[in-house]
Design goal:
The protein is α/β, with parallel strands linked by helices. Helices cover 46% and strands 14% of the residues.
Length: 936
């Protein structure tokens, strides 16, 4: 008779993380599963005989009082041991539960656990590849599994059991070939998680199901079949833009509410793109106007496949939102369908042939195994092949470099997966779209390319346009890193090192007659020489930096020394730079020659050998990129650029970088975009300052910009407040420690007097980090969901958790100042820790301000103040997102009230917003009164 597996799904609550340190279990929950059915439940509180920490009490709801009459673990250890005997233990993050439980059993004289173990976190990572969070609460919420008491062992065990059954069903629905590949890979997963994949595969083979018509199998890989792309029909004969209110009401019906401000924007956009207006157009559409549909609806009547409209937005995330949310809503309103497509660079897409090759490589690291298995699931779901769908915090692991798309050195048609290639499919979509959605970074890099990926732009909408100048500046910024160069040299390597590029090219040359061994020898010799010459040159630059810096800079951890080749360049350094450059030129030439020689015999190469040449080509391109930066810094000199040397005092050589950037990007934008594009609409919520677009115009290089300001429909006098605590000391008078203490004190005051979600915005990651650590120690913050950028996952993951929490505290910097849509109760209070001026100690800000001073310009008035003003406007824009919202901004910086420039910033905030100084004590009282009034 066939043996049946019994699964014991376990969850425990404890006083801490380590039995050996005296921590104890306070609750045990277990659910038994047989034949995919829950057959038994067991749960008990446990008296730990030690005090339960307050933080654990707030988290679990278990107090010293509630466990006082519960059994000791010694009394139930045998019961638990017998319950688990012969079972396969399942837990969400099993390594904690399993190790702790085994430790407790041993402490009571029982044998250690020897059961098989399966981790549902890893199962979820593999089988739910696009989830942004694998926390238990988030996963059960996705599947609508009822979770009555989160962080209580009985409830957690019950929902983990249900989640396990959902995941098992998901696995059984995958194609056999996919699960077979997963089994091959799964040996390196946690504990016996591989056993789950093996036994499920056996079940699937015993009861095979036919392959879904939505999938295809090729070379042992199952992928989703791509839907054919139909060219858009000419619809304008039947449908005209609804010019008057009656026509709009008829079109919108119940799908869109009539909003006067939005209609004003729609008509202005339609009129602009239908006219022969010689100037470009800027519309500031305040929060609540409905900006996105405000431009999408009119352009639906203007854009055609032959003459598409390009929309550029700030980030790839906003691109996705435009396509998946806003375009979908638009198409439900319209009597016809608008075809839209996303344009991103190649490296956003998976290269199927490279992934197929990567599957053959042994994977010793567990993280790489999970990535490979995750992709096997994802390929049965994705229609785009866009790696951003995986919602990873970062893609820094070497694995992603192996499998992302980088184009082809040979004919694309020779690629085995040519017909299914995701990047080519995306390009095909572009050709059949009337709306093309890209992002500012891609747009600016494309303007720099000789071979453009964007089609000719006749009509352009720049959404979140306030970011375009900075993104253009970043696109033109360049960094030469000594350590990076050393790494590249090491990877190119020596002919005798079989793992290096030169070692593998040497092996290849033995079977290909056209690869010249003398090229390999010369390249190797030049690399040896370059290592020595570059090291000497960097040492000379460090001496130059120390002489230039002077003694007052020695106390700084990081040094940034501005460099001017015309005035600060001695003969010795000049000669050294030329030697280094000559060697780089020779290595670059020889590298490309070796690639070409190998490709001359392309027909003899295996797929793997072809990829070796492609990877070598990419490495030489990186090398050449560094060489070009080196040349630009030491052989060219442009008026609109600054160069500086940057290094850390503790490790000067390895941290040494040469950085180069444009001081402003207006010339680049004007020459490459404005002068070549007839119709451009800029839009955003923060384009003007006190009614003037002059700062925005200057940043872009625009002249005679057509302008429109559309005010917010919100009543800020009723809906919002801005308070500055009365007893604040000037920030410049506070030590770092006192400043952190002041922020923590103010946040604590909010926590004690409010249960509303609060976002705390910082200018500095370092201060954010210190405040986060300090709040973690405060009893008042226990029981509150405390989230912090850099600690709590990706931005999207943090926002999702914050949106779902009650009384959550989110600490954010940079990207959290804008682009955050948290309506209603999901955000009621924003704390600004200091006025958002750029730090004058940041290297680029420092050298930029120095450059402006050399031009006899005041950096504060023409750069720092306008930027800070717009930043505060952006921060405030997070607060009120609907007519029913109420919100409070608390600014912990009295310069807003007490300085002339503070008053200037205030004038740019929404009209009617009540602003006052309030004592910290009164803030607590007024918080309750103002926000509670919203409930009535």
């Amino acid at each position: 008779m066939k043996h049946k597996d019994t699964y014991a799904v376990v969850d425990i609550e404890t006083t801490g993380g380590n039995v050996a340190s005296g921590d104890r279990m306070i609750q045990f929950g277990c659910v038994l599963i047989e034949d995919d059915q829950i057959v038994h439940r067991f749960a008990t509180n446990i008296n730990p005989l030690i005090s339960i920490p307050k933080q654990i009490e707030h988290l679990t709801g278990l107090s010293n009082k509630s466990v006082a009459l519960a059994p000791y673990f010694e009394d139930i250890a045998a019961t638990i041991y017998n319950l688990l005997d012969g079972c396969i233990i399942i837990a969400h993050n099993i390594q904690f539960d399993y190790v702790f439980l085994s430790g407790e059993l041993q402490r009571c004289g029982m044998p250690p656990l020897k059961n098989k173990g399966i981790d549902t976190v890893e199962l979820a990572q593999v089988l739910l590849p696009t989830e942004s969070s694998y926390r238990l609460n988030d996963l059960v919420s996705k599947f609508n599994i009822e979770h009555t008491n989160p962080h209580q062992a009985d409830s957690d065990a019950a929902v983990t059991a249900e989640l396990f059954l959902v995941l098992k069903q998901k696995l059984k629905e995958l194609p056999l070939v996919t699960v077979e590949k997963m089994v091959e890979l799964s040996e390196n997963l946690t504990m016996e998680t591989t056993y789950f994949f093996k036994t499920t595969l056996t079940e699937m083979k015993n009861r095979p199901i036919p392959l879904s018509k939505l999938l295809m199998i090729k070379n042992g890989l199952a992928v989703k079949v791509k839907q054919p792309i139909f060219e858009q029909k000419n619809y304008r004969e039947d449908a005209r833009y609804p010019a008057n209110l009656d026509h709009k009401e008829q079109l919108f019906q119940t799908k869109l509410t009539i909003r006067n401000q939005q209609i004003k924007m729609m008509d202005a956009v339609y009129d602009y793109f239908s006219s022969n207006e010689p100037n470009h157009f800027a519309i500031e559409a305040a929060t609540g106007v409905g900006k996105t549909l405000g431009y999408l609806l009119p352009l639906a009547y203007i854009a055609t496949v032959e003459d598409p409209v390009v929309i550029s937005t700030y980030t790839t995330l906003l691109q996705k939102q435009l396509l998946d949310k806003d375009m979908v809503q638009l198409n439900t309103i319209l009597p016809f369908t608008v075809q839209a497509a996303i344009l991103k660079s190649k490296n956003h897409y998976i290269h199927l042939t490279k992934f197929e090759e990567a599957l053959k490589d042994p994977a010793d690291q567990k993280v790489e195994v999970i990535y490979k298995m995750k992709l096997l699931t994802w390929l049965t779901e994705t229609e785009t092949g866009d790696l951003d769908e995986l919602n990873l915090t970062n893609y820094n692991h070497l694995f992603w470099n192996k499998i992302r798309h980088r184009g082809w050195l040979t004919k694309p048609e020779e690629d085995q997966w040519y017909d299914e290639d995701f990047y080519l499919h995306a390009q095909h979509k572009i050709k059949h779209a009337s709306v093309i959605i890209t992002n500012h970074s891609f747009l600016c890099h494309d303007l720099n390319r000789k071979e453009k990926e964007l089609p000719r732009i006749g009509k352009l909408i720049v959404d979140e346009a306030q970011h375009l100048p900075d993104v253009a500046m970043e696109a033109s910024s360049e960094v030469f890193g000594y350590y990076r160069m050393q790494q590249v040299i090491k990877l190119i390597g020596h002919a005798s090192d079989e793992k290096s590029f030169l070692g593998r090219i040497t092996q290849l040359s033995q079977q290909l007659s056209k690869i010249e061994p003398s090229h390999i020898e010369n390249m190797e010799m030049n690399l040896f020489s370059l290592e020595d010459e570059l090291t000497d040159f960097i040492y000379q630059l460090l001496i130059y930096c120390k002489n230039t810096a002077g003694s007052e800079l020695y106390q700084q951890e990081q040094l940034d020394i501005q460099f001017n080749r015309e005035t600060q360049w001695n003969l010795t350094l000049r000669k050294s730079s030329k030697k280094v450059l000559a060697l780089m030129n020779e290595i670059s030439y020889l590298g490309f020659e070796l690639v070409n020689q190998g490709l001359d015999e392309n027909h003899q190469l295996t797929q793997r050998e072809r990829y070796l040449l492609e990877d070598f080509f990419d490495m030489i391109k990186i090398f050449e990129g560094q060489k070009d930066i080196f040349y630009a810094v030491f052989q060219e000199n442009e008026d609109n650029e600054v160069t500086w040397f940057s290094y850390k005092e503790k490790s000067p050589k390895n941290s040494f970088m040469i950085k180069r950037s444009k001081v402003n990007s207006s010339k680049f934008i004007k020459e490459n975009l404005l002068d070549k594009t007839a119709l451009i609409l800029y839009t955003g919520a923060t384009l003007e300052i006190n009614g003037s677009f002059s700062y925005f115009e200057t940043q872009l290089g625009e002249e005679n910009l057509k302008q429109l300001i559309i005010e917010s429909p919100y009543d800020y006098k009723k809906q919002a407040r801005l308070w500055v605590p009365k007893e604040l000391r000037p920030i410049k008078d506070l030590s770092r420690k006192d400043y952190v203490h002041m922020i923590v004190e103010q946040v604590e005051n909010i926590i004690k007097n409010s249960v509303e979600n609060t976002m705390v915005l910082f200018n500095s990651y370092e201060i954010l980090q210190e405040v986060y650590f300090a709040l973690q120690q405060k009893p008042s913050a226990s029981g509150r969901e405390l989230l912090a950028q850099g600690f709590s996952g990706s931005r999207e993951r943090i926002l999702k958790r914050f949106f779902r929490s009650t009384g959550g505290i989110l600490l954010g910097a940079d990207s959290f100042w804008e682009g955050v849509d948290l309506p209603g109760k999901s955000l009621s209070i924003i704390v600004i820790t200091r006025l958002p001026f750029e730090s004058p100690d940041r290297p680029f800000v420092k050298v930029k301000h120095r450059y402006l001073e050399q031009k006899h310009l005041n950096p504060f008035t023409i750069d720092s103040l306008p930027k800070a003003t717009l930043r505060l406007k952006q921060g405030f824009g997070r607060l009120i997102r609907s007519e029913n919202d109420k919100g409070i901004m608390i600014v912990l910086d009295n310069r807003l009230i007490q300085t002339s420039y503070g008053k200037q910033i205030i004038r740019s905030l929404p009209k009617g917003l009540p602003i006052e100084e309030v004592t910290t004590e009164n803030i607590g009282k007024k918080l309750k009164n103002f926000l509670n009034a919203a409930e009535k």
